[in-house]
Structure formats: C-alpha cells, structure tokens
Specification:
Elements lengths: L1 H27 L3 H17 L7 E7 L5 H9 L4 E5 L25 H6 L2 H9 L8 H21 L6 E7 L5 H8 L4 E6 L2 H14 L14 H17 L7 H26 L3 E5 H6 L1 H12 L5 H10 L2 H4 L28 H18 L8
Parallel strand pairs: 1-3, 1-4, 2-3, 4-5
Helix pairs in contact: 1-2, 2-6, 3-13, 7-10, 8-10, 10-15, 12-13
Length: 374
C-alpha cells in the first residue's frame, strides 16, 4: 500500500508541475507547438493518474488469423501479465456501418473512430473557452489516449498483475502508427504468419461466422456455395480444381494481408524502435518455449523455465482445441488445424497466381519464398 500511495503522490506532483509549466508558458506567449507539447504531456500524466499510476502497456497486433488469439492466451496465463482482446481501440478510419441496426454481438466501431467522429464532443472542443483556440485533433488524440489507458488500467486493478495488454488485430494499415503516436512508451508484439495460410484460415473463419450461421459476416456471392462444396466433399473439390475462394474474395484477403503487414512493420520500426518486436507464427509452432521466453524478456516479465513452460502448456493446440492433435481439422472450430503450410493443400494454381500478383513480393521479403516458383 505505501508503494501504491507513493505512485499516486508522484503522479499528482508531476501533473501539477506540468500544469504550472503550461500556465507559465501561456502567460509568456509561447508558440503553439510548445503549448501543444505541454498539453500532450499533461494529458499523458493525467491518464496515468486515473488509477494511481501509469500502467505498463503492450499491444499484440497481427493480421487476422495470424495467431493473435493464441499469443494472447499464452501471455494472459503469465502471473504478471493481463492480456485480453480485442478492445478495438485503434483504426481511426475503421467503423461498423449499420451497427445500431443489429442486435447481434458485433464488434463495435473502433474507440478512436467513435471519439473522433463524436459530433457533440467535437463541437464542445471547438467552442469551449477551455479549448476553442486549440487544434481539436490534438484534444481528440489526447482523449483517446486517456480513454485507452483508463479502460486497461481499470481492468488491471485488483488482478495482482503489473502489465496489461490488448490483442489488437490490424484493422487498417495505420494501426501501429496510431499506437506509436498515442502511446509512444507502449510495447508492440507483431505476430506474422505466411499470408497464404492466413487467408485460408480467414476464409474458414468467415464461413463459420456468416449470417446464415447466426454470425455477422455477409458472404459474397458464390462464397456460401464454395463452403458447402468443401464441407461435403473436399477431396472431390480439390481434384476437380475447384477453389475455396472466389477470385474477388482472394484478391481482397491478399491485399489486406500485404497492406496491413507491410505498414505495421514500417511504422513499428520507424516509430517504436526497440519497443517493437516481430515474431513468426511458424517459429512459435516449432520452438514455443524459445519464442515465448524472448517475448517475455522483451516485455520485461519473468521468463524463467518454469514460468515459460506454464505459459506454453496453458495454450497448446491440444488444450485450445479440446483434445485434437495439430493437423486434425475441425472446420467449424476457431482453432481449426494448428499447422503451417496448409495452403499447399488448398490453393489451386489459379489461387497461387492471384496471391502472387497481390502479395508475392512481401512473401519474398519476409522469407516465405525465395523465388517465384511456388
């Protein structure tokens, strides 16, 4: 308790110091950029003081169906780490259309989007005597930062853990850039998977959560027929040269994978530096203890042999799939197969050409292919 109180006192003192510095700066007529920097620092410290101290934040990012859920569960089993998902904090340009018209438990518009597009909030900022002479975007960014830290910190309180992270699948190419801008001190773990395996898994995921299965995904024309053909007789479908994808679907999934992964890597390295870590899905399959130990060391968490073994064991494919071995497929399960390279059993020659055209250069850049013959 004394340590906790000391952190509160420290945060309050820092906040007062920043506030006084801001007030002095205003009376001296400092330039807007300096005022903005002071306000940003004050907002950052205020967010940390909401629950008695700024938490150690981290985010697990990755293109959908690249292992973010698997990694989230592994980290959450650690005695020092709280990791849940998915908050959908980032992705300012990402929103759900017609969200209010459905009663289904559909993931919401991103928090950043919700705040940035809150009309009354923006009017207040633009017209309030406390902020009308400022850049409203700056205040909206600060409010988003404070809101994210508020929600994470409140969930962390009472758990006995000291670090908190959100599983944040990439919604837009700007997500990691937004993390770096709003939370420059946070750490980001980017899990990357061979894009061909990722799109195969994404197709199955869309099948399982389609509207005709009481889900929220609207399937494109022809996709439902591909699903039924695959599940009725996948061998015949493969032998006849039939694909599990429609051409538009595969092009869209391939572009999303390449665009989001490439941008996340560029922004992570340029904005976050040593606070950015990449891990491969395939390496986690082959050497889980080694990879988890490396991730825990990056986060600054306990990484002794017993702790690592406990984390790995808690989220093995057998446990997550309730008894299946890797490679034993359950098309209806979120944890469908648990292997690497399954795209070879699925892709047709035409599928290969489509993916190569849309994302082949990134496969080579990441080392998944050495040449164009695949």
């Amino acid at each position: 308790m004394p340590v906790f109180k000391n952190r509160v006192v420290l945060e309050v003192a820092r906040g007062i110091k920043a506030f006084l510095k801001l007030e002095v700066g205003l009376t001296r007529g400092e330039v807007p950029d300096e005022r903005a920097a002071l306000r940003k620092e004050l907002a950052r410290q205020s967010a940390g003081g909401l629950s008695g101290g700024k938490p150690d934040l981290f985010f697990v990012v990755g293109q959908k169906k690249s292992g973010t859920t698997w990694l989230m569960r592994t980290l959450d089993s650690h005695p020092e780490l709280l990791c849940k998902g998915e908050g959908r904090f980032f992705g300012r340009e990402w929103r759900r259309d017609k969200l209010k018209e459905t009663k289904k438990q559909q993931q919401p518009t991103s928090l950043y989007n919700a705040l940035a597009n809150a009309e009354d909030l923006r009017f207040w900022i633009e017209r309030s005597p406390w902020s009308r002479d400022d850049d409203p975007e700056e205040h909206l960014d600060n409010l988003t930062r404070m809101a994210v830290e508020y929600f994470l910190t409140q969930e962390l309180a009472g758990t006995g853990k000291r670090m908190v992270g959100d599983k944040s699948p990439l919604l837009t190419p700007e997500d990691v850039k937004e993390i770096g801008t709003l939370h420059p001190g946070a750490k980001v773990v980017h899990i990357i998977r061979d894009g061909r395996d990722a799109v195969v898994s994404a197709a199955h995921h869309m099948w399982n959560f389609s509207e005709d299965r009481e889900g929220v995904v609207t399937l494109q024309e022809g996709v439902r027929q591909r699903r039924e053909a695959y599940r009725q007789d996948r061998q015949t479908l493969a032998e006849s040269g039939g694909s599990v994808f429609t051409p538009p679907q595969l092009r869209g999934l391939s572009r999303d994978w390449a665009g989001n992964v490439r941008a996340a890597r560029e922004h992570g390295r340029s904005l976050l530096g040593e606070n950015y870590l990449e891990v491969r899905y395939e390496d986690l399959l082959v050497s889980p203890e080694k990879e988890i130990r490396n991730i825990l060391g990056f986060l600054g968490a306990l990484s002794d042999e017993r702790t690592v073994a406990g984390c790995v064991g808690s989220s093995s494919f057998e446990r997550l799939s309730k008894g299946r071995q890797p490679g034993e497929e359950d098309p209806s399960s979120f944890f469908r197969k648990g292997i690497a390279g399954d795209w070879r059993n699925v892709f047709t020659e035409k599928d290969k050409r489509v993916f190569k055209k849309e994302a082949g250069d990134l496969l080579v850049e990441l080392g998944y292919e050495q040449n164009g013959r695949w």
